[in-house]
Amino acid sequence: MNLANRITLARIFLVPIIMFFLLVNLNLGRLSVGDFSISYTQIVATLIFIIAASTDGLDGYIARKNKQVTNLGKLLDPLADKLLVAAVLISLVEMDKLEAWIAIVIISREFAVTGLRQVALLEGSVMAASKWGKWKTAVQITMIIALLLNNFPFAFYGIPFDRIATWAAALITVYSGIDYFVKNKNVIPLR
């Protein structure tokens, strides 16, 4: 159990804590400025999400730098990423901040690409992350943060950044999924 794997496990353990702060009504009050309002529990959940999301690249960097890439890490890292994003997306749907179909599209893409990666692994090849996959992750995290923060600070200026980020995430997610399948169609057995 090296440092990189511990960081990945910490990301997994942060998922239920984030969900707790998002979904359990703790009545700890709200921060209000003019028409803008956000619960303190939502702020805490957002900060924990940002910490968890920031460890995504850190664990891989540490593993590669220290030459400690393990099979456990290869398994846990994408699992941790998907658990974090899926849990928060489902929580956002429950909170009426995200349409269910967008969460379904994003989560479905993750399952489909993970399945394709597994098939590639069984065929003896490894699918590297594409630039579109990296953009997809960045835009999804941006969207989630904007939704969790009730569109702060853009709400003060009447800019629907959270909606723009949501549509951008949906489109880039679909495109990156198609891109993975087109570029790796040779992995899919046709018999």
Structural key phrases:
191 residues, mainly alpha, two-stranded antiparallel ribbon, 6 helices, 2 strands, globular
Give the radius of gyration.
18 Å
Low-confidence stretches: none
Question: What's the story with the biggest beta sheet?
Answer: 2 strands, antiparallel
Q: How would you describe the shape?
A: globular
Amino- and carboxy-terminal Cα gap: 40 Å
Helix content: over 70%
Mean pLDDT: 91
- Sheet-strand content, in percent, reads under 5%
Strand order of the largest sheet: 1-2
Strands, total number: 2
Helix/strand-derived category reads mainly alpha
Describe this protein's structure.
The protein has 191 residues and is mainly α. It has 6 helices and 2 strands. It has helices at residues 3-23, 40-65, 71-94, 100-122, 131-148, 161-183, and strands spanning 30-33, 36-39. A two-stranded antiparallel sheet has the order 1-2. Strand 1 and strand 2 form a beta hairpin. The longest helix is centred in the N-terminal third of the chain and has 26 residues, at 40-65. The chain is globular and about 60 Å long. The model has no long low-confidence stretch (mean pLDDT 91).
Task: Provide the fold topology.
Elements: H1 3-23, E1 30-33, E2 36-39, H2 40-65, H3 71-94, H4 100-122, H5 131-148, H6 161-183
Antiparallel strand pairs: 1-2
Helix pairs in contact: 1-2, 1-3, 2-3, 3-4, 3-5, 4-6, 5-6
